[in-house]
Amino acid sequence: MLKAILYKEWIKLRWAVIVIAALTVLSLAYTIGMINYYVEFQGAFQNWMYVIGKSLLLKNIVFVKVLPLITGLAFALIQFVPEMTNKRMRLSYHLPISEKKLLISSAGFGYMFLLAEIVFLFFGLWMVISMTYPTEIVTKVLMSTIPWFLGGSAIYFMTAFIILEPSWIYRIIYAVISYGLIELNFRASTYDQYQNLWALILIVAVMPLTVMFAGHRFRRGTK
Amino acid sequence: MLNKISRYTIILLMVIVSALYLPDFFSMLFDKKENTPRLSYSSVIDEFVYTKYYGMGQIDYMDIKGNNYSEREYYKLLPFMHYANLEKWGELPLTLKGFEMTSKNIRQNSQMVRIQPKDIDPPTVPLNIMFEAEGDYASLQIPDDIFRISNTIEFLDPASNSVLEEKSHKFQEAMLAAGFTFPAKLAAANQTNRKPFDEGYFIKDATNKIFHLKMIKDEPVCVNTGIDTKLKVRQIFISENMRKEFYGWILTEDNDLYLITYDDYKLRQIPTGGNNAKYDYVANEMTIRFYIYPVDKHINISGDGFSQLIILNNDFKKIAEHVETWTPYDKRPAPIVKSFLFPFELSTYDPMQYVKLQMDIFWWHGLIGIAVSLLALLLFSRKRPWFDYVVVLFTGVFGLIGVLLIKPED
């Protein structure tokens, strides 16, 4: 049964996965070009000084900030909006599998792809910036991206949760909370500024649990 | 069971978000700016003076005895701060306490030093640049390599992103010959070319010895400063100044400050507190400024609710001190009301320039808010799962919003 459900999710997600993977490759290639452009026109030394002193790289790699957000949002929408139109989810609830398992495996499967995208992005970025910059800068930049990835993960779970929630009032409340939780990951203005990252990781780690409540309310038909 | 856990997870997330935003909104709406005095010391009348801004361009110029001054009179009391204006008005005295008062003379004999919490250990990339200390040009020339110093010292060539072996080796040898033990724990310099000359780096080695490293005619010069290794050096600040009195200053873990003088790196401690220990300098929370004027030296320590000024004569003997206080943040009306309304506050603000999620608990003030929230829940919304009350007991109004909005499902 589980296999069939995962297959269904894959059918929904496959185009999005391919598009996002292509976008990632394009963005990485674009970044290589952009860094080379800056190095060429600013001069290598001056470029390093801007990167160190003015956090220039954070501006050059803005796609690493945005892509996980887009991916998280897109995956959640693609996976769960079709389920909720015309209350199709009701059909799934008749399957011989518990609703909790169903929701967790769907969301888990989607998140797996988001995580794969994040890992891809992380190592791709690592490769791209180590071509031009020394380890000190690379480490700092990679550390700066962790909150962004947490933001991407948060937007996936919270969007899934909002879509699965049957009542519009609740959806609005949840949207407000989601905004706060996601924004929390985008407060840095320079490299590696976050301390207590574990607290942010913990917050994202409990998010999958929320999906269950929405699913339960849907089953009960709460308005 | 899982549904219950799920519901409380949502409530927890709501608590986090409301604790992040609501107290902030509250302060934004109701907090009023405190008019804080700006304290100075007049060497003309040997008295502490201050200005106080009331907004709309209304400024009071006072001394601490209560005398009022006009703006021009006030400027005349502080000739070392306002010499440019006074000179333009032709009101700069010829001499003061035996010091010849000309703009140039004052400028050459004055210096200002400041440490703010954000300067101490900011999130920076640990890469440095080494200036040529005795170059051929009038201003400092920016080099074309960058160095890292930790387990060893390595110069990097940005164009090829590779190590410059020869130069690195030369510096390594010079440092080892001076008795340096890698890895370096701290490297401090004034990394700007907008300074009259370059004094290079002060570096703490693995055995807590402090070395002075600079580059003269492309050759490394490394000296053991002989600064006491028992000194718990937290950060070193370097500031090259034509006065050549000190290279910079050392901040210790115990919030002490020492100047590193040009007299064979001898340290000179400068006071960081007056008679009242309450106003002693704490590096993580306060700003300290050290003004050097031709006739005296002022140490200004300012924190939440006070500004302390200690005056030293040119032999570093204390001659006067004064503290001006105002209402500190947590005694102002809006923050007090805030602490009654909310049991705690989450914020990511950190004076040390980091983003750090932290909780500020309001203790017994907060208990009142919690009691009211519990009462409200009991009065207006009965028949709840018992855990709802536990949530409100610990999170007050944040939890109340959560449990009321997210109704239990069974």
Helix % of chain A is over 70%
What general form of chain A does the structure show?
Answer: elongated
How much of the polypeptide of chain A forms β-strand, as a percent range?
A: under 5%
Structural class of chain B: alpha+beta
**General shape of chain B:** flat
Layout: helices, strands, pairs:
The complex is a heterodimer of chains A (223) and B (410).
Chain A: H1 2-42, H2 44-53, H3 56-60, H4 62-84, H5 89-93, H6 99-130, H7 135-164, H8 168-183, E1 194-195, H9 197-220
Helix pairs in contact in A: 1-2, 1-4, 1-6, 4-6, 4-7, 6-7, 6-9, 7-8, 7-9
Chain B: H1 2-30, E1 37-42, E2 47-53, E3 59-63, E4 68-69, H2 71-77, H3 83-89, E5 95-96, E6 99-100, H4 103-108, E7 111-115, H5 117-120, E8 146-149, E9 153-157, E10 162-163, H6 165-177, E11 186-188, E12 201-204, E13 210-216, E14 219-224, E15 233-238, E16 246-252, E17 257-261, E18 267-270, E19 287-292, E20 297-303, E21 306-312, E22 318-325, H7 333-341, E23 344-349, E24 355-361, H8 363-380, H9 386-405
Antiparallel strand pairs in B: 1-2, 2-3, 3-4, 5-6, 7-19, 8-9, 9-10, 11-12, 12-13, 13-14, 15-16, 16-17, 17-18, 19-20, 20-21, 21-22, 23-24
Helix pairs in contact in B: 1-9, 7-8, 8-9
Structure description:
The complex is a heterodimer of chains A (223) and B (410). Chain A is an all-alpha fold and 223 residues long. Chain A has 9 helices and 1 strand; from the N terminus they run ααααααααβα. In chain A, helix 1 runs antiparallel to helix 4, helix 1 (2-42) runs parallel beside helix 6 and helix 7 (135-164) packs antiparallel against helix 8. The two termini of chain A are 30 Å apart. In chain B, a hairpin with a 2-residue loop joins strand 13 and strand 14. The model of chain B has no long low-confidence stretch (mean pLDDT 92). Helices cover 28% and strands 30% of the residues of chain B. Chain B folds into 3 domains: 2-32 and 333-405, no CATH class; 37-108, no CATH class; 112-270, no CATH class. Chain B has 9 helices and 24 strands. Chain B has helices spanning 2-30, 71-77, 83-89, 103-108, 117-120, 165-177, 333-341, 363-380, 386-405, and strands at 37-42, 47-53, 59-63, 68-69, 95-96, 99-100, 111-115, 146-149, 153-157, 162-163, 186-188, 201-204, 210-216, 219-224, 233-238, 246-252, 257-261, 267-270, 287-292, 297-303, 306-312, 318-325, 344-349, 355-361. The interface between A and B is large, with 46 and 42 residues. Strand 1 (194-195) of chain A pairs parallel with strand 24 of chain B, so a sheet runs across the interface.
